[in-house]
Amino acid sequence: MEKHHSKYVDWAWEVLHAYFERRHPQLKSAEGFDNKAACFVSIYNQNDNSLRGCIGTLEPNQLNLKEEIHSNTISAAFHDPRFLPLRKDEMKDIYISVDVLDTPESISSVEKLDPQIYGVIVSSKGRKGVLLPALPGIETVRDQLAIAMKKAGIDSGESIELYRFKVKRYH
After folding, report:
1. Which of 64, 120, 128, 143 shows a CA-CA span of 20 to 30 A to 103?
2. What's the burial of 1, exposed, middle or buried (CB within 10 Å: 0-12/13-18/19+)?
């Protein structure tokens, strides 16, 4: 997984600041934002690196990456069902990462996974669990699959389809 310059994270910050100030966010430079791509926006508490919100897409849902990041930033901050909505006073205590996804590819076995390189999508009977790559504490394929399956409500004995994807992570 590659780490890149943070123009996408700068945009996510602008979206949050604009939300709290009740104004329209302004993108300083549209360069690199016109393509369509799926992405995840993750918000962390910088005091203990705990997740504060994370929402993303597996396929692009918006007209371009600018709108995809905007939508996922708002969703991660205010609509992740695992967390209370972000408060303005928390802004000083968070950091953001944006993962831009490559197109997921179907794989035939778990041997083609590496949790440090690939994110995983586990699917069974219409349920999907997703886990991004290179997450703290996820060292093995077994851990990665167990978490993704649990998120989807898939039992260990069920037949599953596997997909993997790479991301470009921006801080």
Report:
1. 143
2. middle
Q: Which residues is 130 bridged to in the sheet?
A: 121
d(CA 67, CA 25): 11
Which pTM does this prediction carry? 0.93
Q: What are the chain's domains?
A: 2-101 (3.30.700.20), 105-170 (3.30.1490.150)
Query: Helices (DSSP H) in 41-167: which residue ranges?
Result: 65-78, 141-152
Question: Long-range contacts: 20-24, Cβ < 8 Å, 24+?
Answer: 20/88, 20/91
Q: Predicted confidence band at 28 (pLDDT cuts at 50, 70, 90)? A: confident
Predicted confidence (pLDDT) per residue in 95-154, tens digit: 999 999 999 999 999 999 999 999 999 999 999 999 999 998 999 999 999 999 999 999
To which H or E segment does residue 7 belong? helix 7-21
Average per-residue pLDDT in the chain?
A: 95
- Report the phi/psi class of residue 160: left, alpha or beta, with left for phi > 0 and alpha for psi in -120 to 50: beta
